Amino acid sequence: MSLIQCHFDYASPVWFYGLTKNLNSKLQVTQHKLIKFFFNLEPRSHIGNEDFIKLNWLPVSDGVDQVTLCHVFKCIKNLAPKYVSEHFSPASNAHS
């Protein structure tokens, strides 16, 4: 799993939000196929939240949101590298 999930997460906040709904859907279908492969399920088996929980995965869009929010948190707390945080300015600073 660690060999595959990293490919879904790599730079995902950069490319994910610009994708069409069709490509987003294809990513989710691919993730569902991986889950079916891991659990040796039939091709038409339903994938539910319990399957994601067993693998400790998030659906593609939720995983992207988690990575994005983690970056924002690190920028706010000055834990991010300077080259990342210099492009981030909190809204409270922008309106003062």
Kindly describe this structure.
The protein is mainly α and about 100 residues long. It contains seven helices and no strands. It has helices at about 1-10, 10-15, 20-40, 50-55, 60-75, 80-85, 90-95. The mean pLDDT is about 85.
Feature tags:
single chain; 96 residues
Which quaternary structure do these chains form? single chain
Strand count, sense and closure of the main sheet?
A: none
Helix-strand pattern: HHHHHHH
Helical residues, percent:
55-70%
Structural class: mainly alpha
Terminal CA distance reads: 46 Å
Overall geometry comes to elongated
Mean of all residue-level pLDDT scores: 87
Low-pLDDT stretches? none
The count of DSSP E runs of length 2 or more, i.e. the number of strands, is 0
Compute the number of helices: 7
Percentage beta strand: under 5%
Compute the gyration radius: what is it?
Answer: 17 Å
Layout of helices and strands, plus pairs?
Elements: H1 2-9, H2 12-15, H3 21-39, H4 49-55, H5 60-76, H6 82-85, H7 91-94
Structure at a glance:
The protein is mainly α. The chain has seven helices and no strands.
